[in-house]
Write a structure and sequence with these properties.
By secondary structure, this protein is of the alpha+beta class. The chain contains 17 helices and 22 strands. It has a four-stranded antiparallel β-sheet with strand order 3-4-5-6, with no helix packed on it. The protein starts with 9 loop residues before the first helix and ends with a strand.
């Protein structure tokens, strides 16, 4: 069973840290003594009980102090264990506020050993450029890739991290990423309260700003981003035909990183964008090149979120041009990301020529349309209402539903599956398989955590909406299930069936709570009132029935339709109920009394 660190009694923490230090320092002493002559060996009692207790007091409650100190003492590049230990003990303190100082300042202070005052400023600036970048990277990079991203001579990052192996995981292979050994090192360096006391303090926003500047500089170079970067030559050639080695040779890791994360660093820098600034000028020249590269590395759909982030940091007054550009760019991506994800070079042919005539992207990059396209199709002047078409089902789609938080979209199909999509980008998140027949209806719980699906196989399945894990299979109907609905408190789930019944289930456990009988024909639709007190059911028997959702008693039967009733819905205040009929009639009823208030045919 898990236990939070703050819940562990201090004596137990003290005992554990003491045992760890005794064991690790004994190993350090043993390894060191094996590597040196007898006259240089550490005594058998080193470092001694008193010293270990001093280290324990410095560490509590930070176990990371103990592990960092041991790595520091054992780092032979920095000095002998005895000397390294002395550097740590200089920071002995009982002040809780300076625990991280005692953990990390001994490591950093050694960088200044033998450095003159005049050299110190340059060393600290180089530290901020290199280590400051490492601690804010969105994804770890190797020393080689970081050299290239930062524009420093090859080997610079490697040499500047030589004395920092106690706080950084620096692989021996130059193509493996550097990682922080503990996030507290990052927290220590960017802590604004230490701005005056920590000579190696890193201005986080400034570090992000410098990185985005480097990213855009790299991406603005024609050798790094250009049309047909991987030399496919023909637009119909699919991305799947291009092996990873070829992609990596034309788009090295540092360029891939810049493509993926320049918007992230821009956002984190706190900058705003406006007309004809660095960002706008980059997009006017390289927007399609950027999308092409993202497609090759399998990240094209992420550009939708990136454009959203750019739109969120537009300067409100001097930004009409970039605002229109980004709005058009998002419509362009939404419309053509499916085809461009399969064949990246379609960005310059199909996507451009089928974009609306007034599209800013089409007009900006008109010159990239291949010469062999002589006659362009006749297209609309402006974008229509369709944002995106989601493809993937192999059968008809019967039902769709958005999650309450608007993040997910579910679709039910005759192919026996449910698909869950990212509502913002259209990215397929999950394909839910398990039904043995067509899926007729889907519904999210009000808290967006669960997804229910109803099928011709007579079952309802309840899934974890985030992971796609099957939570429950609800069996009990003797006919196909036509509709499902969650109560607005997410506690109940109702299912309507061709067996003429409605069943109410506990949404969390799948326990059957009620079977509602009374319809004389198949039940086509169910809906809860917004206050979760009432449940309405529509039937092929031409009626709507209203039930008490908690106890299942029939409250009223609404008769008046001359044909089967296919759908029901409550108003948000739970006072009105609407029903739709195959007889081309729509009726609105008082949910609390049988009065028939409105009807339209």
């Amino acid at each position: 069973e898990g236990l939070a660190l703050h819940q562990i009694p201090e004596p137990i923490i003290k005992e554990d840290i003491s045992a760890f230090l005794e064991h690790q320092l004994a190993m350090i002493r043993e390894d060191y003594n094996k590597s040196v002559t007898q006259n240089r060996q550490l005594p058998a009692y080193w470092p001694g009980h008193t010293t270990i207790q001093s280290l324990v007091r410095m560490a509590i409650p930070l176990f990371i102090f103990a592990t960092t100190v041991c790595r520091f003492i054992n780092d032979r590049k920095c000095g002998q264990p005895k000397d390294q230990l002395a550097k740590v003990l200089k920071y002995e303190t009982r002040s809780q506020a300076s625990k991280l100082d005692a953990t990390y300042l001994p490591v950093l202070d050694q960088l200044l050993v033998g450095v003159t005052i005049s050299e110190r400023r340059g060393l600290v600036e180089e530290f901020r450029q290199i280590i400051g970048s490492i601690i804010i990277l969105a994804s770890p990079l190797s020393t080689t890739s970081l050299d290239r991203l930062l524009g420093v001579p090859e080997g610079t990052v490697d040499s500047r991290t030589d004395l920092l192996h106690s706080v950084l995981s620096v692989p021996s292979r130059p193509d493996h990423p550097i990682r922080l050994l503990h996030l507290s090192f990052r927290d220590f360096l960017v802590d604004t309260e230490k701005r005056e006391t920590n000579p190696f303090w890193v201005d986080e926003k400034d570090a992000h700003n410098k990185l985005v500047t480097r990213c855009l500089k790299l991406l603005s170079t024609s050798e790094n981003l250009k049309k047909d970067i991987c030399n496919l030559r023909t637009p119909e050639r699919p991305r799947a035909d291009v092996d990873k080695q070829t992609i990596d040779s034309h788009l090295p890791t540092n360029i891939q990183y810049a493509c993926q994360y320049w918007v992230y660093h821009l956002k984190e820098s706190g900058s705003i964008i406006c007309d004809n600034d660095q960002v706008h000028n980059f997009l006017k020249c390289h927007f399609l090149h950027w999308l092409e590269s993202l497609s090759f590395i399998g990240r094209l759909r992420e550009s939708i979120g990136m454009v959203d982030n750019l739109m969120a940091i537009i300067e409100p007054i001097k930004s009409s041009q970039i605002s229109r550009f980004l709005h058009d760019a998002k419509r362009f991506i939404l419309a053509y990301c499916s085809i461009a994800d399969l064949s990246p070079l379609q960005l310059y042919s199909s996507a451009l020529i089928f974009a609306p005539k007034n599209s800013i992207i089409r007009n900006t990059f008109q010159n990239y349309i291949p010469d062999w396209i002589v006659q362009e199709p006749n297209t609309d002047l402006e974008w229509d209402a369709v944002l995106q078409t989601l493809e993937g089902h192999s059968g008809s789609v019967c039902s769709v539903a958005f999650s309450r938080d608007s993040r997910l979209l579910a679709s039910a199909s005759d192919d026996n599956t449910v698909k869950v999509w990212d509502a913002a980008t259209g990215t397929l998140q999950q394909t839910l398989e398990g039904h043995r027949s067509w899926v007729r209806s889907v519904a999210f719980s009000h808290d967006s955590k669960l997804l229910a699906s109803a099928s011709y196989d007579n079952t309802v399945k309840v899934w974890d909406a985030a992971t796609g894990t099957l939570q429950q299979t609800l069996e009990g109907h003797s006919g196909s299930v036509s509709s499902v609905a969650f109560s607005h408190d997410s506690r109940l789930l109702a299912s309507a069936s061709d067996d003429n019944t409605v069943k109410v289930w506990d949404a969390a456990t799948g326990t059957l709570q009620q079977t509602l009988e009374g319809h004389s024909n198949a039940v086509s639709s169910v809906a809860f009132s917004h206050d979760s007190r009432l449940l309405a059911s529509a039937s092929y028997d031409n009626t709507v029935k209203v039930w008490d959702a908690a106890i299942g008693t029939l409250q009223q039967t609404l008769a008046g339709h001359s044909g089967s009733v296919r759908s029901v819905a409550f108003s948000r205040d739970s006072k009105l109920l609407a029903s739709a009929s195959r007889s081309r009639g729509t009726a609105a009823w008082s949910a609390l009394s049988p009065s028939h208030t409105t009807r339209s045919c």
